[in-house]
Amino acid sequence: MIVPQRLFMKKTAITEKANNVITYQEAKLEVESIVRQVENNEIPIEQQGEALDRATFLLDFCKTKLQTIEKSLNQKLN
Description:
Layout: H1 24-39, H2 48-77
């Protein structure tokens, strides 16, 4: 199921994958979409808190992914 990008929605095509796996690229794209929607006033003020929560979750996810890759690379280089 693909969700239109016109408004932030808690459930997206990404979060509804059957295996609940999200990739770094998908998370990054969703954060960019949320930021763009907030900047363009496309998200009602009442939903901006939820959008911020979702973006924060996704950013934490991306940070963790990058830290895991960095740790793995450091181990291989040492």
